[in-house]
Design goal:
Distance between the termini: 78 Å
Number of strands: 12
Mean pLDDT: 80
Structural class: alpha+beta
Shape: flat
Strand content: 15-25%
Order of helices and strands: EEHEEEHHHHHHHHHEEEEEEEH
Length: 360
């Protein structure tokens, strides 16, 4: 083992013990722990030569009488590490603003807006800047878009956001989110897409990861008994997310029969299409693509009960909805739709009965 001394341009020095038979990348990982710089941001120079990650330290020095090794460390932020920095700012600012009931401090909202802008969530950033401006003025006035551009508290930020819109119409950078996902996976934090509620708090970032997840679970849904297909709930087919491990989540999917082979009751009447909930366990992994870049991949496992998925065309009588026996309905002969002039109490009761008649 030898002492590796890495000196930065600002005069900082860091020392770690390394084995000359180790790769340069391993040496970077050791340095990363002491200098708090991400491995991908570290570039090492020895005698003005950039050290390759795959090369061994032994290849650049003579093995005899080597006790210390000096290199120059240059920090070069990447798209991914910049995204991680602003994501961490967003995590902290989001926690503060969600708990902010008094709405008297504009600074957390400015931090939230700035982080949203740097993550590509520009529309949400504009809204957060507006709220920060209103807080700064003690909620005394309503602030329109033009006033927001000249606001003393946030105007310098909103003008940047406005110029960005005129230049690119807030074009979203998917590559930045994918780089963010790779580094979050490396840190064991990718399950935060569920715990931090990306689907509602970071919708554009969520759209990118949803595009990766959908090809993993959709073919498995189509293989369910009865030719089931997904049924959209809201903006997409996934709802009720939860983390399982540091890099995996569980998502609930609503599925419904395709109707190709309708089920009938004893009288031959076609029954409503059966719905069911399945749980998709989505495991995030990383691999290198053809270009040699690391990217996130997704594998999926569905969990469900086969009793929830009847064979095509099989008769189930009154069995309906989520694969469980339907609730018995009251027989209400002659019941009609509520009429104008009924009392409010009767109106509410009639609507309850009307809904039950319609369902049955």
């Amino acid at each position: 083992m030898v002492i590796l001394t890495a000196q930065m341009m600002d005069g900082q020095e860091f020392e770690v013990e390394v084995d000359l038979n180790e790769s340069v990348h391993t040496a970077k990982e050791r340095l990363s722990t002491v200098c708090d710089i991400h491995t991908s941001e570290i570039t090492l120079f020895f005698d003005s030569i950039i050290l390759s990650d795959n090369g061994a330290l032994l290849g650049m020095v003579l093995p005899s009488d080597v006790e210390e090794l000096e290199v120059v460390l240059v920090r070069t932020p990447t798209v991914g590490t910049k995204a991680v920095y602003w994501y961490d700012v967003w995590v902290d600012a989001s926690a503060v603003t969600l708990a902010d009931l008094e709405l008297k401090d504009a600074v957390p909202w400015i931090n939230l807006a700035s982080s949203l802008y740097c993550l590509g969530e520009c529309g949400a950033a504009w809204i957060a800047y507006r709220k920060a401006a209103q807080i700064a003025q003690n909620w005394k006035v309503n602030i329109d878009d033009e006033q927001l551009l000249t606001d003393p508290a946030v105007g310098k930020y909103t003008r940047i956001l406005n110029r960005s819109y005129k230049r690119t119409e807030w074009r979203f950078d998917e590559a930045r989110v994918k780089s963010l996902m790779v580094l979050l996976h490396e840190e064991g934090r990718l399950s935060e897409v569920a715990t931090k509620e990306w689907n509602t708090q970071l919708p554009y970032c969520w759209a990118v990861i949803n595009q990766l997840m959908e090809p993993a679970w959709r073919p498995k849904v189509s293989d369910l008994p009865g030719a089931y297909v997904t049924k959209a709930r809201g903006s997409d087919n996934i709802f009720r997310l939860e983390a399982k491990t540091r890099n995996s989540i569980v998502a609930e999917l609503c599925v419904v029969e395709s109707g190709i082979h309708p089920r009938t009751d004893e009288a031959g009447r076609v029954l409503p299409l059966l719905e069911a909930i399945v749980k998709a366990e989505l495991q995030f992994n990383t691999s290198k693509n053809e270009a040699g870049d690391v990217e996130v991949t997704v594998s999926c496992t569905l969990s469900y009960n086969y009793k929830d998925f009847p064979a095509p065309g099989k008769t189930y009588g009154n069995r309906r909805g989520y694969g469980i026996p339907g609730k018995s309905k009251k027989n209400l002969p002659g019941k009609t739709k509520p009429a104008v002039g009924d009392s409010l109490d009767d109106w509410d009761d009639d609507w309850d009965d009307w809904d039950e008649d319609e369902e049955s």
